[in-house]
Specification:
Shape: globular
Order of helices and strands: HHHEHEH
Number of domains: 1
Number of strands: 2
Strand content: 5-15%
Number of helices: 5
Length: about 140
């Protein structure tokens, strides 16, 4: 569930034609699931954000990690921009649960792949928004 918004008429037409040709659409069951989940979205989002911050801080202390890219972490690029735009009245804003980890290159791709393959609590995946944790 999302949207693509543009002021560019030519781009709008390209997106519209792509949408039509691919037959993209939202099913009734998907729309119903979104509508049912809206009353608890604030609670779920705050929990999602808190868990991600805790995990990002924890993994940032690992010797193999060069940097954690998460807007709520003060040493992350873009933190000041995030803080200025996302601050809530009386506190800081939420940052969701998506973050990146930069691994020291001396560990190599094969070792990083083996680490990811050995994970038991996190699954390998490319989707965001489901109820599971992905790497």
């Amino acid at each position: 569930m999302g949207s693509v918004i543009t002021r560019d008429a030519a781009l709008h037409l390209r997106v519209k034609l792509t949408h039509m040709r691919l037959g993209l659409g939202v099913g009734a069951n998907d729309a119903e699931a979104v509508l049912r989940s809206l009353p608890s979205i604030g609670l779920r989002y705050r929990a999602h954000d808190a868990a991600a911050r805790e995990l990002a801080r924890w993994i940032g202390g690992h010797p193999a990690v060069v940097q954690v890219l998460h807007p709520a972490l003060e040493d992350s690029p873009g933190h000041a921009h995030w803080a200025a735009l996302c601050a809530r009245e009386g506190g800081e804003g939420a940052a969701a649960g998506l973050f990146s980890v930069v691994i020291d290159e001396r560990h190599g791709q094969a070792r990083v792949d083996a680490f990811c393959d050995a994970l038991q609590l996190f699954k390998l995946g490319y989707s965001w928004g489901g109820p599971m944790s992905l790497v």
